[in-house]
Amino acid sequence: MHLRRFEGRVCVVTGGAKGIGAAIATRLGLEGCRIAIADVDEVAGVAREKDLRARGVEAIFVRADVANERDVENLMAIVYSRFGSIDVLINNAGIMPSGKELEEQSLEEWRRVVDVNLTGVWLCSKHAVKYMKARGRGVILNIASTRALQSEPNTEPYSASKGGVVALTHAMAISLAKYGIRVLSISPGWVDTSAWQVPPREPRLTPLDHGQHPAGRVGRPEDVAALVAFLASDEAEWMTGVNIVIDGGMTVKMVYLDEGVLEESLAVLLRDRELAHCMRRLIEVAREDPARAKTMLREVVEKL
């Protein structure tokens, strides 16, 4: 049973039709908030609005591209006209880059990722703030990423945009404090959003995916939504300007690759410790005598 911490309040969730945004919209809606979903996916947006209303949540869907200022200004005007206030803004909308090598990334791709992920946060905040100022309070929560702090290869546009979100967060927190508006960012790690797609999908995760997290599993959108619900509530009124990481412990985990780490990973992946130990021994042999290891492996394969 959820609390009812947001009775009478209005929340705009960008990218709220699917994934983490949909989970946030649902959590805040079940806690009494009136919800405005903004998304470019009209089919998913209409479906999410219908789902929320079926759960007893007062909700609307507005198609909006957060990188388009006219769309954003129109979005905030519609929400205010319909509900009479904007109390909480969740800047969640974001897109991923192509994953191409740096020298193959186009300027158009860079601009689109930064426009949606970073400029969109600035635009939505800019046009929501005037309604928050009128009430003398408000909360802006920006969904960043652990990619603001660490990276995988070929994610330059995404990592840069999310790093910018974290910096923009503390800048706005200082600028807007005098108006009673709090601004925070959240950096999720690996979150599986399969169940929050339209239609929902089955997760495709391995034991190794879960096991490498100190917390023992990959994240769920509900994990992020629960944190958002706290940060957006009056219980967190002394928090502003900070970035909170929620990643199952991955960003603080040091990993040194050696045979022991490989054996443990194989044991989790194969669910067979004896086989994992045998493979470790093969690796140890290969370090000293690659030809012998190849012969041993060939003999094993021939017997299968």
From TrEMBL:
InterPro entries linked: NAD(P)-bd_dom_sf (IPR036291), Sc_DH/Rdtase_CS (IPR020904), SDR_fam (IPR002347)
UniProt keyword list:
Oxidoreductase
Coiled-coil regions in this chain?
none
Report the GO molecular function annotations: oxidoreductase activity
In terms of Pfam families, this protein maps to:
adh_short_C2
Quick check: keyword Oxidoreductase in the entry?
A: yes
Record's keyword annotation contains Oxidoreductase: yes
Recorded family membership: Belongs to the short-chain dehydrogenases/reductases (SDR) family.
- List the protein's name: SDR family oxidoreductase
Q: Which organism is it from?
A: Ignisphaera aggregans
Starting at the broadest rank, the lineage of the source organism is: Archaea, Thermoproteota, Thermoprotei, Desulfurococcales, Desulfurococcaceae
